[in-house]
Design brief:
192 residues, alpha/beta, Rossmann fold, five-stranded parallel sheet, globular
């Protein structure tokens, strides 16, 4: 049975990005795929220092920096078959918390034999007004460099919203996210 993890890069809880990730997980659950939501809000994720500790030790928990919340999230990512990440747009790009996590996770995975290779997933980006396409592409590149499989949808997985809950008014985004979740479930079952 495949399992999913959704990681919310917003420093705020219960915002629009978390709403879309929860919707995605609920849709997967309805199709028999259990999932877990991890929020980076309130967590400390330090950036990669390029120390090469993971290459030298072959340790998938990043041995160089141990005084943050990286290791348990990395382990959850390794256990999951489906990895979905979501970020609000912060000054035209993904949140710093999300990029610190993805940079380190990607580096550790690459140093240990491409640990995310052939896992499936995809990004979701939420913007107040603009920047969502760049943020979506920025996050999508992480999947590509990690040799992952990303299904499409009826549009890019982007939404426009500002105040918490406003994303529920973006009907096209909701339809896109639902189709994305359906495609994740279909692909997981085909590959499983």
């Amino acid at each position: 049975m495949p399992s999913a993890i959704a990681i919310c890069g917003s420093p705020r809880r219960y915002g629009n990005t978390e709403t879309l990730l929860t919707r995605t997980l609920d849709r997967l659950k309805a199709q028999g795929i259990p999932g877990e939501l991890i929020t980076l809000s309130g967590k400390t994720i330090r950036g990669c220092t390029a120390c090469n500790g993971c290459r030298e030790s072959k340790d998938s928990s990043c041995p160089a920096i141990q005084e943050d919340d990286f290791a348990p999230i990395m382990q959850a990512m390794l256990r999951a078959d489906i990895i979905i990440v979501g970020s609000p747009v912060y000054f035209g790009s993904a949140s710093p918390e999300m990029m610190a996590l993805l940079d380190r996770a990607g580096y550790v995975a690459g140093a240990n034999g491409k640990l995310f290779s052939r896992k499936i997933g995809g990004p979701i980006a939420v913007a107040r007004r603009a920047g969502h396409n760049f943020t979506y592409a920025q996050l999508l590149m992480w999947y590509m460099i990690n040799d992952m499989v990303v299904p499409g949808s009826t549009y890019w997985n982007v939404a426009l919203a500002r105040e918490p809950g406003a994303v529920m008014q973006d009907e096209e985004a909701l339809e896109t996210i639902d189709r994305f979740a359906d495609n994740l479930a279909w692909l997981a079952k085909k590959l499983g």
